[in-house]
Queue: 2 jobs
Job 1
Amino acid sequence: MADIRLGILGYGFMGHEHMNLLKRIPEISIEAICDIVPSQMDDAPEGVRKYTDMDELIADPEVNTVLIVIPNPLHKEAAVKAARAGKHIICEKPAALTVADFDEMVAEAEKAGVRMTVHQQRRHDPDFVPMKAVLKQGLVGKPYLVRSMMYGVNGNMHDWHIYPEMGGGMLYDWGIHLIDQILDMVDEKVVSVYADIKNVINKEVDDYFLLVFRFESGLTAEIELGTYFLTPKRAWIVAGDTGTALLDIDFLNGMKETRRIVRTRHLLENVPGKITMTSAGPTRSFGPPEEGLLYEEPLPDVPTNDLDWFKGYIRAMEEGTPFEVTLPQVRRDLCIMDAFRESARTGKAVPFEA
Ligand SMILES: NC(=O)c1ccc[n+]([C@@H]2O[C@H](COP(=O)([O-])OP(=O)(O)OC[C@H]3O[C@@H](n4cnc5c(N)ncnc54)[C@H](O)[C@@H]3O)[C@@H](O)[C@H]2O)c1
């Protein structure tokens, strides 16, 4: 059995989330927690040691793994200290604010012979897993477009997320997850990227972005996120030459969900254009389909669970196998984020792995 004795560094929103989730995983023991604000730890379970200084948590001899859950700019300092103390590292996303910082963290972990991974657990999200399966199982034929949409109405960001120097903004916060999902589902080189990144109502940090990935095969992936969309929803489209898969969770209408693939048994390239009258005039391309041409299927039912990421972590520690989220993958996520920023700055597409 893996010997995983955690110290949770940072006991704010996500520190508490980790505590609640890990209570359901008996293979991991939580030895200690740490927060510079002592009152944050008032509700900690009994028996867990409490510290207010990260050095003390890291030095605790019973802690062999540090789970870093403090604000983004502090990840590097904590990871370097943990590595130098010989502790394994699980770091919250975004692992670092720059690729150079991340490289330093990796170098320290390698030098110390400790294992490190990053908690990019949204690879197990129930909206993502079926869409990845659609693509991997070829359920829409040859894919030409993947679109991931995340729209919210709560506009203003909160706490340290509103400060650029704290690694605030939505690209660091949600962008890293959404980018990681696209790179996890599409196993191809990214030839170029384009981005539009805006501050809609936040003065200093981004709260809207459109990210476009152009892959080697010609497949395009797009991510659009806005914290100030008055039509809030989470949605996905995967479109190919024999089908279109749709997942849509409508936050306005009681989280109403649509999950389906609309398919055809043959390529539609030879379907003759039929003139249809619409309110906008006649069209040969956009009328309703002929009866029987298309049929619907449910999305693949792939079981997924909020414990999956940590279960995978335990397996990798027990078997000495690579983590699900590898360090080169995290580095690629951070590099592509830089390319998106460059594109947004210049207004031009930026070559990536061409
Ligand atoms: N993977 C996910 O889905 C997910 C979700 C939310 C947050 N996160 C990540 O978790 C990290 C924390 O985010 P959060 O939302 O919990 O923030 P938060 O502000 O709610 O909590 C951070 C906590 O760290 C404490 N802290 C600050 N500096 C410290 C220090 N030097 N030593 C000890 N404690 C310190 C703060 O007092 C606070 O309680 C961020 O990197 C964020 O991106 C990940």
Job 2
Amino acid sequence: MNTQNQSNTRLLLPEFEYVKPKTKTEALQLLDQYRDKDTRILAGGTDLITKMKTGALSASRLIHVRDIKELSGARQIDSALHIGAVTTLADLERLPEVKSVYSALYEALRSMAAPAVRNMATIGGNLCNGSPAADTAPALMVLGTVCTLSSLTGERRMKLSEFFVAPGRTALLPGEMLTELAVEGVRPGSGSCFLKIGRVSADIAKVNIAVYLERDGDRITDCRLAAGSVGPTPLLLDSVASLLKGSRISQQMLSEAGRMVEDAISPITDARSTQEYRKAISCILAEEAIKAAWVRSGGEVPR
Ligand SMILES: Cc1cc2nc3c(=O)[nH]c(=O)nc-3n(C[C@H](O)[C@H](O)[C@H](O)COP(=O)(O)OP(=O)(O)OC[C@H]3O[C@@H](n4cnc5c(N)ncnc54)[C@H](O)[C@@H]3O)c2cc1C
């Protein structure tokens, strides 16, 4: 039977060896020991186990990291919020500073799946899955997130925008795991927003867009835009941000930015949407997200 084409999952998983390290060092030792392709990290399992059940992915050994305490939770260090990779989406959503300071991230979390899934799923799993549609990716990218990849031999840091390589592929090397995300502090006079269109609410995105901007009077002084489900990886839209930087906000400028987003993306037609719809809706979502971020920064509604 071809299980790849099943739309429903099977109840029983194929057999696998299950290991549950208690500490980060233990997890890294296991990853180093089992550097073969058939060993995978298991966090919340909401992506991985589903794929194993449908036969889309196989693994003979899973290293379960979700309960490693030192990789969970968030803390403020200097101006940045440091988030452990196995922090659940639900725990992040409940953090007061995420709601009050990082609006784009809060909105991305709130848009995802049902509470039952958000209780299991982790922020690291959402990113390491490498999906172009991952909702937290554009939000974290515009918020200037740097990720830490750890292995037994040390750590390396990179901007989250450089983490995504291709559909389902990230910059993680054999023996490495994502351990932390550092989200930059936001400046006074700034605002951010995340918007998404799915087939139904809390569904995987047809398109998602995030914006972060800084305002001085009626001008945008700095800006980052990112979009998901519109290319092989979540995309940072630098050309649109360049247009916006230094500009006075107006309805005309918003329309121009929307048109530039349409030109900057390369969506495909798949089960969720068509290329044409994705282009058209990205333009509108971008305008709306820039406007909302602007108003949140304290600016007046543009005319
Ligand atoms: C019903 C349902 C609805 C969903 N809705 C959405 C949605 O609206 N938006 C959205 O973006 N996603 C959605 N998802 C997908 C999924 O829930 C998220 O991507 C989730 O955040 C994955 O996290 P996890 O901890 O469950 O990852 P897992 O399934 O445990 O892992 C995912 C992948 O990442 C790897 N991995 C996990 N953690 C690490 C780490 N720290 N270091 C290295 N590799 C790691 C695993 O090996 C695996 O390949 C949905 C899933 C379901 C089942």
